[in-house]
Design a protein that fits this description.
The complex is a heterodimer. Helices cover about 55% and strands about 10% of the residues of chain A. Chain A is α/β, with parallel strands linked by helices. The mean pLDDT of chain B is about 95. By secondary structure, chain B is of the alpha/beta class. The chains are: A alpha/beta, B alpha/beta. The interface of A and B includes residues 51 and 97 of A.
Chain lengths: ~210, ~475
């Protein structure tokens, strides 16, 4: 038995096996951070990479995320205080005027799988609400999602509001009509074309944000 | 001799039992699960009419649905501004419209650039000069250079002035529909005229699964108030916003659409409704909607059959592709999705020309190529007149074995009845190569310029144009 059993169970999206492996490792006295990082989070990184490479289907990726989350629930009570905060908090939502949330929910799940605390504001979220939530939760990143081309201006308005509030928080955008060029043109700090890429981008932005703090 | 004379088509034809199963499943969804309307005004209308509600959730009985279907027309006419281009939608009649919603254009070099209002005006001119397209759409491209709050005013104005075919109303919110109604009233001499007959149509979208956003509920209600046709559209993505099974998608979308139909009839009995779906499978690797997929065509066929069951005109299909360039993939997928929709009986075919992958971009080259596709399809579906005169055994007898027909007077009289392509090549290889070896998308780029040069603005009363402009400027001043 080893940490790599939990890792493998996540890759195989086997929830029962993830939970039992994690429990076994905790009982065996394995270092909790190691279990979290090498058993669970790294496994999700691998899952994300397989998906981005076209080797895994979305339902499989989501199954893996759910299995990992089950393992995470077992690990959480054993984590030292503040250990989860070290990874960062993401505030995420679909912008004002847009009710689409499936993609956003997918990203939120993958962010949790990546070890972040995720504050999901839901849909049709106005700029002020994003700003307030980022302040209240000491977020490192605000993630904005849109599916309708007509709501993309709301992304620009939100980023503007964040900048005007003077918060030390990074912004990233995504969604079917959103492109890297568009993200740059509205002053977003980051963009991703898919959910695993969003996790990587969020990590990069959190690292940048910490350096700026 | 006894030959089987029934129509042959290998596409699935649902049995009455299968249709009943789907209908019954939708009735169960409507009565037990309900549909959410994020509009207090809409919920109030349902409550006042005795519907069971629970917050924003509305429940429907089969009787509610059947009652609504008593007043929906199976066919309707949309009038054109100068009176000579009216269209009929429903039963055997169908209309083709260009693509809509894209915010990028695919350039001849395969890149994408944002669309502008100038592109929108180009779309109006292309519809006006098209021998295939029957109406202008709304948001044919997204005018990214116009303020979003007032862009609809410029778009509807362009539809009315640059083209005199019937058009689509603005459709983003109830307020934009109100503006469209006011502008139509200017054209038709008052709002009362609108009650008498349709002068524009609007697309209203469902939010799957089983929801209507506040804005779209308002669009439905405003259009119904003036009895203007609603193209009530859902786009369920199998495995994402709807079930993984295609019959499940048909039952879900049916429930969604029938709920909207009921709302139109409660607000305006007799309002024409077009039962519309662009449902497609979710591609589970790319996490995109696979609109060029075979499942999309199957769902389109199913949608048409359900609409026919309810005696409602139907919108589905288009020349749909997931490709990002007008290439072979675009042609294959577009031809199959468009021909399925037209051949299976759709009545309103949006995105018949110009759509590109994900509905996020469009291509003017594909627009022209798709027009060739439409031209071919219409010809294919024009029946042959079979009479002794058209068979003309006398001519066959007079030429006999081993003769030729090229110099026969009948050939000389009638050869122009055979189709000639506008874009596609028929030259042999040598001639094609020597004249530049152009690919069809390159031919399209050239033809596009020629086509736009040949455009002339349709006649419009100066007073009318001024009145429209005055309305637009006044509303812009208020809304900016």
């Amino acid at each position: 038995m080893a940490v790599k059993d939990a890792y493998q169970a996540v890759i195989e999206f086997d929830m029962e096996k993830v939970v039992s492996s994690v429990k076994a490792e905790i009982a065996a006295g394995t270092d909790i951070q190691t279990l979290l990082n090498e058993g669970l989070i790294s496994a999700m990184d691998e899952v994300g990479k397989k998906f981005s490479d076209g080797d895994l289907f979305v339902p499989e990726m989501l199954m893996a995320a759910q299995a990992m989350k089950a393992g995470l629930e077992v690990v959480k009570p054993h984590l030292a205080d503040g250990a989860t905060e070290s990874r960062g908090t993401i505030v995420i939502g679909t912008v004002k005027g847009d009710l689409h949330d499936i993609g956003k929910n997918l990203v939120a799940m993958m962010m949790e799988g990546g070890g972040f605390e995720v504050v999901d504001l839901g849909v049709d979220v106005d700029a002020e609400k994003f700003v307030e939530a980022a302040k209240a939760h000491n977020a490192g990143v605000i993630g904005l999602s849109a599916l309708l081309t007509t709501t993309m201006p709301a992304m620009e308005a939100t980023i503007k509001a964040v900048k005007e509030a003077g918060l030390n928080v990074k912004t990233m955008v995504g969604g079917a009509p959103v492109t890297e060029d568009f993200a740059a043109s509205i002053g977003a700090d980051g963009y991703s074309a898919d959910a695993p890429g969003a996790v990587e981008m969020a990590r990069k932005l959190i690292a940048d944000q910490k350096m700026a703090a | 001799m006894c030959l089987n004379n029934t129509r042959q088509d290998r596409m699935q034809h649902f049995t009455p039992e299968e249709i009943q199963l789907l209908h019954d499943a939708s009735m169960k969804i409507l009565s037990e699960v309900g549909v959410e309307f994020n509009s207090a005004a809409a919920v109030t209308i349902f409550e006042k009419n005795g519907f069971k509600t629970d917050g924003k959730k509305v429940f429907f009985t089969e009787n509610d649905v059947l009652k609504a279907l008593e007043t929906t027309p199976s066919r309707f006419v949309v009038k054109s501004r100068n009176g000579d281009k009216n269209v009929t939608i429903g039963e055997q009649n169908y209309v083709l419209l260009p693509t809509g919603g894209a915010s990028n254009v695919v350039t001849p070099t395969g890149e994408q650039r944002p669309t502008t209002f100038a592109d929108y005006q180009t779309c109006c001119r292309l519809v006006q000069t098209s021998d295939q397209l029957d109406m202008t759409g709304f948001l044919m491209v997204q005018p990214n250079d116009l303020p979003p709050q007032t862009a609809h005013l410029d778009m509807v104005s362009a539809n009315i002035t640059l083209c005199d075919k019937p058009y689509m109303s603005a459709t983003s919110t109830g307020e934009t529909v109100v503006d469209s109604i006011e502008m139509a009233a200017i054209v038709w001499g008052g709002k009362e005229a609108l009650h008498r007959e349709p002068v524009m149509v609007a697309i209203a979208n469902v939010m799957s699964p089983l929801q209507y956003s506040g804005e779209q509920a308002e669009v439905i209600m405003e259009m119904a108030r003036y009895r203007q046709p609603v193209i009530l559209t859902t786009m369920v993505l199998a495995g994402s916003s709807g079930p993984i099974s295609l019959p499940g998608v048909l039952a879900l979308q049916n429930a969604e659409l029938l709920a909207g139909v009921v709302l139109t009839q409660l607000v305006g009995p007799g309002t024409p409704v077009v039962y519309s779906s662009t449902s497609a499978p979710m591609d589970m690797k790319a996490m995109t909607s696979a609109v060029g997929a075979p499942e999309t065509a199957k769902l389109a066929s199913g949608t048409i059959q359900m609409a026919r069951f309810y005696k409602l005109p139907c919108r589905t299909g288009g020349a749909l592709t997931d490709a990002h360039y007008p290439d072979a993939q675009a042609a294959v997928e577009g031809a199959l999705t468009l021909s399925t929709a037209v051949r299976n009986g759709a009545n309103f075919i949006f995105h018949a020309c110009g759509q590109m992958g994900g509905y996020i971009s469009m291509s003017f080259e594909k627009w022209l190529i798709d027009e060739e596709l439409c031209r071919i399809l219409r010809n294919m579906l024009t029946p042959m007149t079979i009479t002794p005169e058209t068979i003309d055994v006398e001519t066959i007898a007079s030429i006999g074995p081993g003769g030729q027909y090229l110099t026969h007077p009948k050939t000389f009289q009638q050869f122009r009845n055979l189709s000639q392509p506008v874009l596609f090549n028929r030259k042999d290889f040598g001639k094609w190569f020597d004249s530049g070896a152009e690919r069809v998308d390159e031919v399209a780029t050239k033809k596009l310029a020629e086509r736009l040069e040949g455009y002339s603005k349709p006649p419009i009363d100066t007073g009318l144009e001024e009145a429209l402009d005055e309305y637009v400027q006044r509303r812009k001043a208020l809304r900016s």
